[in-house]
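Quick start: read one record
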Amino acid sequence: MTADDEGHYANMNMDDLNELFKNFGFGFNKKDINDIFGGFEDFFGQGFNNMNQRGKDLQTTLNISFEESIFGTSKTISVNIPEDCKTCNGTKMKPGTDKSKCNTCNGTGRITMQQGMMLFQQTCNVCNGEGYKINNPCNICRGTGKGNNMSKINVNVPAGVNDGQTLKMSGKGYPGNNGNNGDLYIKVGVSNNPE
């Protein structure tokens, strides 16, 4: 199969599928395709979305002077961003306690289901893919493993910024899985009175 053939098959629509398989006595409609391949969406959607879930975006405001808006400025702001709980160090467990293997997935973090003749795997809904369960959650973070912390962030405000303009700082929002953090949006307020 050539690269041109691969590109052709990748762009096939329902009519192309019917044309391709009509000599074999098959005909497809949208419902048939969903019945046959619908489980793949569940498998890939749930499994990979849980592993790479993006953190939430964070919004704040920053007030600057008229002069700073013209020439630009650098400011330090404080934002409340979750970090590892200082009591349990992010383990989610009460100090001195232990976790136990999840009995539903046998510690693998995945469960297998059969649909017709096919087997599908998805993230375990009991342990959320962790492979274990917390018997005694941390009292401080309530088993989340996270605590709030005021973080200081340096913001470079460009020259010519307008009142009400929003600056975006990628990856400076709430933490997500695998370092997939949300973004920080800063709405700039400019003083009306030149100094």
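DSSP finds four helices and nine strands in the chain.
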